[in-house]
Amino acid sequence: MRRIAVIGCGGAGKSTFSRRLGEILGLPVTHLDRLFWRPGWVPTERAEWRRIQRGLVAADRWILDGNYGGTMDIRLAAADTVILLDFPRRTCLRRALRRTIRGGEQAPGCPERFDPEFLRWIWTWPHAGRRRMFAHLAEHGGGTRQILLSSPREAAAYLARVRSR
């Protein structure tokens, strides 16, 4: 595993999981949210975002954490491994709300905030988001090793197995 895409529902813990996996494997980790959002929650323009993604995947070794369906094709085509955190909705909602309350910054100049649209996205994930994610995997991830982790316990066990190798 040298080029890993970590994807899944908001609030699943993709960033934390990616950071821990990166520490274990000695791979650089890029949290896509930190690159996509400009100060004041201004999104990166689509053409520039695709250019940034192509630059990221050109490296030999990486972990990229985040979904961004409009650029999923770039990451899945370049990844050798895709890890999907497919946790229960209640887990993701609880974690997202806790992160909002705790505060901090999602990206430089983008403080955590209560975002009903984001919570709605998490709520609909089991039906719409999950289906789109599997469609992306089927269309663009054919040559990748695909790992599905269905709970925080499975994710922790996976990290422990990788650490013990």
Description:
- 53% of the residues lie in helices and 19% in strands.
- By secondary structure, it is of the alpha/beta class.
- The chain has one domain: P-loop containing nucleotide triphosphate hydrolases (Rossmann fold).
- The strands form three sheets. Strands 2-5-1-6-9 form a five-stranded parallel beta sheet, with helices on both faces. Strands 3-4 form a two-stranded antiparallel ribbon. It has a two-stranded antiparallel ribbon with strand order 7-8.
- The mean pLDDT is 94.
Question: What descriptors fit this protein?
Answer:
single chain; 165 residues; alpha/beta; 5-stranded parallel β-sheet; two-stranded antiparallel ribbon; 7 helices; 9 strands; 53% helix
Brief summary:
Helix content is 53%, strand content 19%.
Note the topology.
Elements: E1 3-8, H1 14-25, E2 29-31, H2 32-36, E3 37-38, E4 42-43, H3 46-57, E5 62-65, H4 72-78, E6 81-85, H5 89-102, E7 105-107, E8 110-111, H6 116-140, E9 145-149, H7 152-164
Parallel strand pairs: 1-5, 1-6, 2-5, 6-9
Antiparallel strand pairs: 3-4, 7-8
Helix pairs in contact: 1-7, 4-6, 5-6
Helix content: 40-55%
Shape: globular
Number of domains: 1
The CATH architecture category equals: 3-Layer(aba) Sandwich
Give the terminus-to-terminus CA distance.
Answer: 12 Å
CATH topology label: Rossmann fold
Q: What letter string, H or E per element, gives the SSE order?
A: EHEHEEHEHEHEEHEH
| Continuous helix count | 7
| Strand percent estimate | 15-25%
Low-confidence stretches: none
